[in-house]
Structure formats: C-alpha cells, structure tokens
Design brief:
about 425 residues; 5-stranded mixed β-sheet; 4-stranded parallel β-sheet; 23 helices
Amino acid sequence: MASMEELVRLMRELEDQLVVCMKCGMCQSVCPVFDQTGREADVARGKLALLGGLMESMFDDPEGVYQRLNKCLLCGSCAANCPSGVDVQEIFLKARAILTGYMGLPPAKRLILKGMLANPVLFDRLTEWGARFQKLFTRPVNEIVGTSCARVMSPLIQDRHFRPLAKVPFHKQIPFLDKPAGRSGLKVALFNGCLIDKLFPSIAHATLKVLDHCGVGVYLPDNQGCCGIPALSSGDMPTFRKLLAHNLERFEAGEFDILVTACATCTSTIHEIWPKMAGPKSREAAQRLADRTMDINRFLIKESGLEPLAGKNDKPRTATYHDPCHLKKSLGVFTEPRAVIDAAPGYRLKEMVEPDWCCGMGGSFNLQYYDISKSIGDKKAAHIRETGADVVATGCPACMIQISDMLSRADARIAVRHPVELVAEALEA
C-alpha cells in the first residue's frame, strides 16, 4: 500500500484539479459509456462530483467508490471536449491510486501486476509458455480477421473472439538493434509495447521495414518492459514507477533523436502520463523522453518524409480507418495515419461514420464490463461494415483486439491491420 504522505499529496492535487469542473454536462454527449447506460454516475461529471467528497467516501464506502471509478474507459473523450480544460484522465488515475493505496489490490490483480507485469523477464517467459500451449485450449474461428475462440466456455473469456499469442514474440526474433541513420540523417528509438511484442510482431517488422525505406536508423534496446498503463489504471503506482524506471534505464543507454511507437496507448502514456505520474527522482528523465516521443504515423509523415509509393493501382482494395482515442483525443494525431494509408498504392481510403468514436476496449474495462464494452464495439463494427471495406486500419493494438472480436463474432470477412503494415506490404510487392 502507498504511504500516507503519498496519499495526502495526491489528495491535495485532486482538490486543486476538481474545482475547475463547472458541472456543465458537456461530457455526456461524448461519453461512450453514458451513451450505453444513460446513468449520470457513469459520466465524467458524475464521477467528479463523487470525488469532491473522496476523503469521506473513501472511509465510508471505498469499494463502492472504486467500482464507480473503474466504470470508465479512460478514452479521454470528456477531456478532449471539456470547455474548462479539466484533465479528467489524470484526475481519475490519481483517484484510483489513492483508493488502491488505501485498500490494496485485489489478489488477482496483485498477482498479475506485481507478480508478472512488474518483472519483464518473467512476464516474457510466461507469455512464451502460453503461446506454446494455447492450441490445447483454443481453436481458430475467423481466418480473415485472424481470431480464435476458447474450446471450452470459461467465465473469463466468455464468447470472445480473440487474437492468439504470436508463436514467437518480437523480442525473440530481434532482441536488440542499433542501426545508424541513413539518408534521412535521423535515428529513432523503437518502443515495442506488450501487445505488439506478444500478439502483433508483424507490426514491429513492418515498422522496421518502413523506417529502413525512409533511411532512418533504429535503436532497439533489449529487455523492454510494459509502458505501465495497466498498473496505473488499476491504481498500482509502485508497479507503474518500477516499470517507468526500468524503461528509462533501457532507453537512456542509447543515442537517438526521437522515440517512436506503433501503439497509440504507449505513445500517449509515455508522452502525456509518464512525466505527470513519475516520482521526484525520475520526473526529469521522464519529461526528457516524453518531449521527444512520437507516434509512428506522425513521425513517418512529419519527420521522415514518407511519400506515396509507386505501384499499380488498377483495382485498389478499400480500407477504412478507426481513430484510436489515445491518438486523436490525447495527441491530436488523425491526418497522419490517413496519409500513411494513402502512401500504400494498393488501397483506397473510405471513411466510416464517426471514425473517432471509441471502440469500447479500455483495457481492463473490457474484462470487468464486457457487456457494455461489446455494445460499444458492436456500434463500431457496424460502421466499419457499412463502408464495404476489405481492411480496417487503426494505430492501436488494443483497438485491433476489440475490433477483431466484434467483426469476428459478426462473421465479417474484414482484415484488421496497422497503417504501417499496408505500406510494408507495398514495399514487399
């Protein structure tokens, strides 16, 4: 549990931030959870009102407050549309840290976060063993989407269609890389992220291929850890800061101009959250790295000068694009992924309705509130299918997992890809 000194400090910071909220209710119209439930308690304004009396509520009904705070996707839709500029995501993360510091973690989360995620080497080994034996418990269900389902119904998996673990994670395929800058004169550090490393190594390979095409050098440190957002979202500040210190040590050992990631959540976490939630000893280093962290799509268009590739385009396939919340709403990145798709000659972009409406994933939200998550995701899947697209692209592996589930359960034959994969595909042609 957190020290009382740390809890008091977070409480005071919360008090200063909460007074900014005018209770105008603008967050209602953009909240995906409120759109499904219609309950005031599920929208940001209701949760902020609850936090106004957090000190008293924490002692009276800490479990109730914790449950209400967890019923949030942390998508940032409310903050992006708040006329008062309330940083709702930061407030909720601090509130969860306060409650977890007071109550402690549930046993299952303690095992996952402190026992596995906080130890990158152990976490890697466990997922590698999981990949070896997953065929015993799962079976393929949609070849185009690339999903599987459980052979036997389980309370955790339910009727989900999921992307299986990669046979070989990316860190085993390319453990380390230190390639000098080419004709661009630029060298980047590449942060993999857990989902790309363990589920979507093809995205990392595509990223390296496109960076090489653009003449960009790459520093890829070994033994990378999780960005820490699963721990922080659960209020586990010690595990978050342990992972932060681990990753800072790995990347500070290299020389590079910009840190890039192909994961929207990792990009947002490193750029926005690391400096805000770092401890005093690591805050300066976290800020230095955050200041030069960039989404791969933005880097390719704004920095490396990726141009449309030459190639035949007689019968282009139709691609549509889903805006990850952590890219558009947190970082303002939305034109660049579309420009990356346009650079692939085999595809024609067709916009879906509400491309920036949340897909409903929200990390652990999907596990705790799957019915709501599924309802939000089904709405997204319907918009994708209406375009008649052959491929839906998005810059977030977590969104790829959610969209794959929704499309697969609807028996849609639509591939789910990252924009850089489309460009890499054209380079291989």
